[in-house]
Write a structure and sequence with these properties.
mainly alpha, 0% strand, 3 helices
Length: 80
């Protein structure tokens, strides 16, 4: 196996580490409630992340209904 000496125009690992460090510093001293509000605000701003809780909530609701149980109201995507 050979490696070629190329200069990267974008280093994904470095970028992920920078983002992780920035987010960690921003949320480090938040209480649980502050963190939850912070996450909810980001989810509402990002269309990709906005779909995730709704699809999971829908799946969980359908599973609960299939099992003959009431769904957990905390998973209701319309509650946000």
């Amino acid at each position: 196996m050979t490696s070629k000496n190329r200069t990267k125009s974008f280093d994904c690992v470095e970028s992920v580490r920078e983002i992780r460090d920035r987010v960690s510093a921003e949320i480090a001293k938040m209480s649980y409630e502050e963190l939850r509000q912070w996450l909810d605000a980001r989810v509402q701003q990002d269309p990709f992340f906005a779909r995730i809780p709704q699809s999971r909530a829908s799946d969980a609701t359908e599973t609960m209904q299939d099992a003959g149980r009431e769904p957990d109201p905390r998973l209701d995507p319309t509650r946000r």
